[in-house]
Amino acid sequence: MAPRKSDGDGEEKAKPLAQTSTRVTRSMDRQTRSATKQNGAKAAGSVTKQVKLASPKRKKPATEIGRGAKKAKKDEEKEEEAAEVEDPTKPKIVIEHCKQCNAFKTRAIQVKEGLEGAVPGVTVTLNPEKPRRGCFEIRKEGGETFISLLEMKRPFAPMKALDMEEVIEDIIKKIK
């Protein structure tokens, strides 16, 4: 804001002295390191002791939290799978679905649940390896392919046109 204009007398009026503030702020209470050292040097005979603080708690091992946990779980699952004795009479089904859109995932889970519920002892695995782009494929491990839709472009019309109940029934008939 601009200062007020003078009356034009040429004489300046005596301004009253500004009142000093008695307000104390937190920053006034703080001392700098140099001020603390000076005060410490003035107080002759003062002895400073180093205090040993307790070390912070250590973090949990990687097997319990974070990214390491996922890796550890995968390793455990692989060991369990290797420990299981493979039964050649039980059919193994592989469903490979693209991760580009959730429509692939929902259909794959629907097929998995349908097969596991209808065929006793069937093993259904989703994406045992990195899936191909735009791919929805259901096959027997190391053999027959039931459905193979490859290199689909958006909006994935061939996959969405499928009646999943019929697909599940066809696969069940072929397995038995």
Automatic annotation (TrEMBL):
Compositionally biased intervals (Basic and acidic residues): 1-15
Region (Disordered): 1-89
Compositional bias of kind Acidic residues: 77-86
InterPro entries per record: Selenoprotein_Rdx-typ, SelWTH-like, Thioredoxin-like_sf
Lineage top rank: taxon: Eukaryota
Keyword set, alphabetical order: Redox-active center
Keyword Hydrolase: no
Entries under PANTHER family matching the protein: SELENIUM BINDING PROTEIN (PTHR33638:SF6), SELENOPROTEIN H (PTHR33638)
Name of the featured protein: Selenoprotein H
Species, as recorded: Brassica campestris
Upper taxonomic lineage: Eukaryota, Viridiplantae, Streptophyta, Embryophyta, Tracheophyta
